[in-house]
Design goal:
The complex is a heterodimer of chains A (about 260) and B (about 800). By secondary structure, chain A is an alpha/beta fold. Helices cover about 40% and strands about 20% of the residues of chain A. An 8-stranded mixed β-sheet of chain B has the order 7-6-5-8-9-11-10-12, with helices on both faces. The chains are: A alpha/beta (about 260), B alpha/beta (about 800).
Amino acid sequence: MNRRILLALFLTLLAISCSKTEQRPVTTLDTLRANHSPQAIAAVFAARQKERADLVAFLKSSSGHEPITDSRVLAAIGHVPRHAFVDFPHLVERAYLNRSMPIGYGQTISNPVDVATMMQLLDVQPDDKVLEIGTGSGYQAALLSELSKHVFTIEIVKPLEQQSDERFHLLGYDGIQRRLGDGYYGWQDQAPFQKIIVTCAAGHIPPPLLQQLAAGGRMVIPVGDPYGVQRLIVVMKDASGEVRTEDRYSVRFVPMTGSGAGSQ
Amino acid sequence: MTPTESSLFRKSAFAVFLMSGAIISLQLCLIRILSVTRWYHFSFFVISTALLGFGVSGIVLLFAGRSMLRNYTGACFWLCLLSSAPALLVLNAAQSLPLDSQYLLHSTDQLGMFVLINLLTLLPFLLGATLIGLVLMNHRGHTGSLYGISMVGSAAGSLISVVSMYALSEERLLLIPCSLAWIAALIWWDSKHVFRVTGVALCFLGLAFFGFRPKALVVEPYKTLSLMQRWAEQGDARCLLTQHSPRGRVDVYESHLLHYTLFAGLNARQAPPPELAILRDGNLAGTVFKIQTPDAAAIMDQTPSAVAYHLTSGGNVLILGESGGANVWLARLAGARRITIVQPDPMILKVMKSDLANISGNVFAGQDISVVEGDPRIFLEQTPERFDTIHLASEEEMAAGTGGIGGLHEDFLLTAEGLRAAFRCLSPSGVLVITRGIQTPPRDSLKLLTTMLEALNAEQVNAPKRHIVLTENYLADSILLFRKDVTAEDINKLKSLAEARALKIVWPPSGSAFAQNTTGDGQFPSMEESVSSIFSAGKERFLRDWVFDIRPAEDSRPFFRDFFRTRAMPWMQEVYQGQWFQRMELGFAILIVVCAISIVSGVFFILVPMIFWSRGRRSGKGWLKGTLGYFALIGFGFMAFEITLISRLTFYLGDPVYSATLGITVLLLGAGLGSLRSSKTDPRQSLSRACIFIVAIAGLLLASTFAPVSWIAALPFGIRALLCSLLMLPLAYFMGFPFACGLQIMRARSEDAVPWAWSMNGFASVVAPPLFTALAMSATFQWVIVAGIVSYALIQFCLKPSAK
């Protein structure tokens, strides 16, 4: 009797795992690769609008976080299809939850609250030249491109850079300037930048980024322990070039690979 | 015994010896492997998993023990054989599963994966423990001897594993326990059984194949080692060397993408020079500047600690725990006359002094350098030298314990006694410096201040607050402890040094106009207000009311990185809402979670089957309660003393790895000898005598303090280890009696005593480690000893009712 129960249990588990494997959904990118047309792109942007509207409502509220009040930031979040930036099929359904999610290679797509908070702190204006360090999935760069036409983004992990490159192309974000490289040194050829946003944890503020920040510019950067807790710091450079910092929030980001502040 | 019985007993005893060794070896090897591959929390779970295996094996024996006994040699053979190559296969499969620890709390898939990994890891322990339990059931008249042999086997297995870790890489380590199990299977070899012959041959081939072609370790993507491997794959990094030892694995990587400089301030105008990364167990342990002259390390002059070096320019510098040499360049930049480096890890020293000597500009060599291999605290206790600057480099980190279990880390340098020892090593004009990352709300710096105050009060320093300066940049707080009173002249000098480095002087209130950095979010008192409170008459109240536990760390509670307060959680949730979790110190909380998981696992795998089994059975309610209580108490008592003794050993030997190995080996060996001795005596009398001795010796342990450390510290390491072993041995010896004696007594009451005892002891051993660590953190280790004493004192009462 006991053996029969065990066997039945085993077979049930096997059946569940097999059925799960068969029902795996494909990602949005898979769909776009198969059919890359303006209609297909429009369909991606049209999909899951209700969830985006709910997310925007959540960001505007003060439930568990400081409310996001910048209407341009909220509009961008309401427009950009976050689910198209999630690679793992089993996570696509959860794209609009307030969660960070893995995108592979130890990197993540940050949770919507942190993304929106950083954008609000950055205060991007339409003519600002914006530099993003850490392209990752490309979601933040896509949002930034909704606010400014001059977005530059750098990724250090080659496969991620290739993925985001393809994703930008498939989703029609061809205006975003991107490259593979070491974000620590910024993008000297395009400097100065009015806004710099670092979407990965750094051990300290890289001096090259400070130099590439324009007078009157603003940088938002999480500084702290990699894979631990970081403090979100706003760096302001006044007209005379003097730099001031403000400590704003605690956040969790994956490290800026290279300047991580591991403990001894 | 007839010759046949005698032969069978010898075989059984040898199998128990080998399998006990295999189990402890598996435990140590898995801890080593997980330290490299996973987030370090997971190595913690191995101990619980192993002990849970013992508990569950009792249940297996309870249900299937009798049928196993009917084919005793066959059961023994297969239990041993399955613990060899098949176990290796299962463990490799467990290690290869795609667990993403970052999402453990958010994803049911990941939680399921975690449970599956633990269940797979549990299997080999379960098999080994079942074998030992089965042998104990079969040879009822030799309980004491067999249990003793098991203990001695465990001690031997522990030593074999540690020695093997020098020769084998982590990829091959599992060969040790699995080979021991395979040898144990050979004991039951019978050429007449085709299956056994085939099984042995196949397992040999499996082990040999694994030996030649081990499976590469899958390192979690969040570890620096994984990052370096990724960079190496895309051509941005190169592994220069990898070395292994029981103390850890050291990797050195070269990459143009490394830009590590801890706490460099806003005035730094240039990037750090090209670097190498030293990884210890897959985590960044330090970076090495690829430079030849101090000028190239100019960025180090922008770190907050640089102030201390400049205050005592041209002096005698002591750097405790320096790994990659960056602070040595800083000392040279500041014109140090002489530099002493103390590093506890011989592998790091070897790497720096030989392998990387040329590439690092011989930073650990030269006329001005003196390198000491040893524990910083022990060094401070024994050195007659006095220093102008003492830099606690090993204690510098971004965050104490948030997001990790740093809070569980025992640190005898950041205690009141440790800082007192450092203070005594300062020259009359000397300065001690330590820099730690800013946290909101503050905790590290405040706890450092209270610990320093405690140290200065113990040194009977007048007006301790006049000896302390606190500076801050946007990243870190830097505390300077002066041997003498800080004068106005010092403050003026400090002001100019601080301004050049974008530092704010927080204490003493100096009217520093420099306010480039704004920290804090207005939800709690500013750093200035907090420090003033600590230096005021209202200090005790401030400590009591502060959201984190910032009471001074002491040698009897050496958990500097533990700040957790349960009552702070509602306040944090209210103030920081969804972000409260990110600001909490999680070490203690994780410990409680581990404890809860252990209890739930124990209940699910041990207690529920026990209850299920005992339902409907008339015999045994009286002896059952006694058995449960007795063996649970032994489990608790043994673990209480084990945890405390390993902590004390760490203090006296200054090395956690050697201390744990020596502690476990001596305890198991001593207990094994005691257990062997118990088989030749009357169990009741022996038990009473043993308990009296245990309580008496533990009472002495309780009364003793850490006071004699200075003369013990002066002894060579070998003598220290021998002395500690000799001091531990009597307690360990007597701790071997209760289990064996109890089994003999209980066995007379029921045939099922062995599995019951096995299960309950396992259950208690699973729950005890996190429980007693939590007790040590919230009270002191003295209370853990008290818990051990109470456990052993109570076991007598568990036997009494039935005796009547």
